[in-house]
Amino acid sequence: xxxxxxxxxxxxxxxxxxxxxxxxxxxxxxxxxxxxxxxxxxxxxxxxxxxxxxxxxxxxxxxxxxxxxxxxxxxxxxxxxxxxxxxxxxxxxxxxxxxxxxxxxxxxxxxxxxxxxxxxxxxxxxxxxxxxxxxxxxxxxxxxxxxxxxxxxxxxxxxxxxxxxxxxxxxxxxxxxxxxxxxxxxxxxxxxxxxxxxxxxxxxxxxxxxxxxxxxxxxxxxxxxxxxxxxxxxxxxxxxxxxxxxxxxxxxxx
Amino acid sequence: xxxxxxxxxxxxxxxxxxxxxxxxxxxxxxxxxxxxxxxxxxxxxxxxxxxxxxxxxxxxxxxxxxxxxxxxxxxxxxxxxxxxxxxxxxxxxxxxxxxxxxxxxxxxxxxxxxxxxxxxxxxxxxxxxxxxxxxxxxxxxxxxxxxxxxxxxxxxxxxxxxxxxxxxxxxxxxxxxxxxxxxxxxxxxxxxxxxxxxxxxxxxxxxxxxxxxxxxxxxxxxxxxxxxxxxxxxxxxxxxxxxxxxxxxxxxxxxxxxxxxxxxxxxxxxxxxxxxxxxxxxxxxxxxxxxxxxxxxxxxxxxxxxxxxxxxxxxxxxxxxxxxxxxxxxxxxxxxxxxxxxxxxxxxxxxxxxxxxxxxxxxxxxxxxxxxxxxxxxxxxxxxxxxxxxxxxxxxxxxxxxxxx
Amino acid sequence: xxxxxxxxxxxxxxxxxxxxxxxxxxxxxxxxxxxxxxxxxxxxxxxxxxxxxxxxxxxxxxxxxxxxxxxxxxxxxxxxxxxxxxxxxxxxxxxxxxxxxxxxxxxxxxxxxxxxxxxxxxxxxxxxxxxxxxxxxxxxxxxxxxxxxxxxxxxxxxxxxxxxxxxxxxxxxxxxxxxxxxxxxxxxxxxxxxxxxxxxxxxxxxxxxxxxxxxxxxxxxxxxxxxxxxxxxxxxxxxxxxxxxxxxxxxxxxxxxxxxx
Lengths: 254, 405, 261
Hints:
The complex is a heterotrimer of chains A (254), B (405) and C (261).
Chain A lengths: L5 E11 L4 E12 L4 E5 L6 H9 L6 E6 L10 E4 L11 H5 L12 H14 L15 H14 L4 E5 L7 H18 L2 E5 L3 H7 L2 E5 L6 E6 L11 H15 L5
Parallel strand pairs in A: 3-7, 3-8, 5-6, 6-7
Antiparallel strand pairs in A: 1-2, 1-4, 8-9
Helix pairs in contact in A: 3-4, 6-7
Chain B lengths: L4 H23 L12 E6 L5 H6 L5 E5 L2 H7 L3 E5 L16 E6 H6 L1 H20 L1 H13 L4 E2 L4 E2 L1 H9 L2 E3 L9 H10 L12 H11 L13 E6 L7 H8 L1 H8 L1 E5 L9 E6 L2 E10 L3 H9 L5 E5 H9 L4 E10 L1 E6 L7 H13 L5 E4 L4 H12 L3 E4 L10
Parallel strand pairs in B: 1-15, 1-16, 2-15, 8-11, 8-12
Antiparallel strand pairs in B: 2-14, 3-14, 4-12, 4-13, 5-6, 7-13, 9-10, 10-11
Helix pairs in contact in B: 3-7, 5-6, 5-9, 5-10, 6-7, 6-10, 8-13
Chain C lengths: L5 H28 L8 H8 L12 H32 L1 H14 L8 H8 L3 H25 L3 H9 L4 H35 L9 H10 L3 H29 L7
Helix pairs in contact in C: 2-10, 3-4, 3-6, 3-8, 3-9, 5-6, 6-8, 7-8, 8-9, 8-10, 9-10
């Protein structure tokens, strides 16, 4: 059994404002293994995004621990995140956006290597011909690809994705889901994605983690053992998809 | 960050460069030192009110301005007067020339000949009254120019009547002085206008003549059927218009003496605006006395038909008339009434010393700075005098030398 | 590089047509009124404009006076920017700084630059420094307010991306906040230049100025030469137009992404 690349132990978070306390997470524990694609699902507003932000350091947990196996390469971040909206820097070209993280002091990547990584990522995300375009010239789906490339540029061990494709149409979404799988295969990254789409989860995930209602805990972990490429019309696919849907809605099995 | 980088750096570089430039300007004097030199002074335009303060803070070396600003500066301990117009070269030029005059627009004279003549008559009468009763005139003037309060000075306060006392000793009120041959006007005429310049030719003597007839009773003024409203401008900071103040504030005397007078609508106002010209107790014209800031501005306003006439400096009037302002000079009000003032610690006692001092300072590369009001008789006087002494006049803060005939 | 298309020419012609209409009305009115003190004829105004290097009213030329005013405005404008942009970045970025500085900013902001004139003379003496001070007081606040707004308008998500990639606070400001706020700051600069240019005419009425378009206008007024005032006003307007065009060109060249992000 491999060592988990990311271990979350009883993560607890309550949002406090002047009127009331709003408990979001009540002790979430998750292990993520190398090269795994994990999908986190659950009822709306139950802290899934909050969990990702805690892993990423944008929020602080009230209690609990996070353990991340240290990164191996220079210029490597342990964790990087892709948000629901691409949030590309509109004043930078696509190339500049992708290598943004590499130019920060925290990464210290020499310039020729920057170019290498950028070229590789542009190829991986099929964006070669757009290297010198600007974000406002690209469609939503392509912008999101760039956001993914930007996160991958710092070769994170874990790539967090917070409902990255929910704003896109079905066809683009399918393309990008395939790309996620390709990325995992090519770069050997662990991917943790929050999604509201059961079909998407079953299409790409190795395991699906289901959260309870707020205050959230992990209510169930469903493995998906189907081989890739997965057929959304296949019977086993549909069975698992329906199961996931029932679990998320809290409905009993028939 | 390729896109905005250029402007970002442009802004930064631009800022740095210009801050340096600013500092450089601060430490470099506006005066360039040259070897070839004709001695030079710097002429600076300022308002009458600001000049004593500028002298007091050593930002200027001297100023030339009308009374009572001169008397006020002397009594306040800010400066000393070293020359009156009569002292300024060309010798004798300013001794008997008109400083301030009465001006009326030509169409007003044509349309209301007797009203114009009445105004002239009253002015002459007021001049006589001022000369006969100087203390009364000083009191009225102190009240009009300074109000009822004492004057605040850097060291304490002054009684306005003391200021007026000193000021009046520097003025002669007369209706008979001729307007000066103005260097500024000759300059303007040569540069901007083709018609000839003749100061005396600007006088419309018919008006004063008719006025005299009213005064000695040989003619009776005709009241026009449409009673006109005339706006007459003047400078309330100047003592030179004392006859006007006497005319308005001592109206009972004139009513009794001549049968016509100028009566303020508000008898209690220290500076009346709305007045009525009465002839034998009947209104003959409504006169508004409009205070203004500069002689040039007054003349422009006359040209714009917003003033019908004014008591104003001779030079601003001539300057504009030569450039086409449709007005005429009726008569003078006074001669003198100005002074050249320097700081108390300046080692200068008269015009000759002043010129020596100017030359000395110029040679040291720190030319004397003289303040005056733009396009005023004072500007004309000082520039004529400096031209006579062969000293060039530069505009302060520039390297532009003013031309002169 | 600005390409001029047929559409552009058409648009410019429309503007030009209105200007020509106004000029025609002006000239007709001037001929009817027949009083150079009230409405100078276009002929008189153009006589001054068409000889920009000739001495005006026995003084310096139109061009020389224009350069003096331009120098004063540029000095004041860049000084104001040099102070306002850093202060604006600070106040926009830090809630603490905002708490300290906002009240005094809101009190000083509405004070018209002209109200500072007596203090200008008292603190800086006669000469170019007091004029530049007035211009700085006019130019400062539009830049400051816009910089603060620009910083506060930077999308939170962008700074989160930077944080996520482990950018330091300073790197966040340098690489995200400043470029993100730049379009709004640019607008502030543009407005501020307009205000500064307007201030120069008033500022040059301070005692001690002997050159500049504002001085020229006052000088001409005292001599009743309104056609010179007209020429001065046209020059002032043209320079304002030029400056605005430069700012707009900058906007489309560097900030075409604004509004589409």
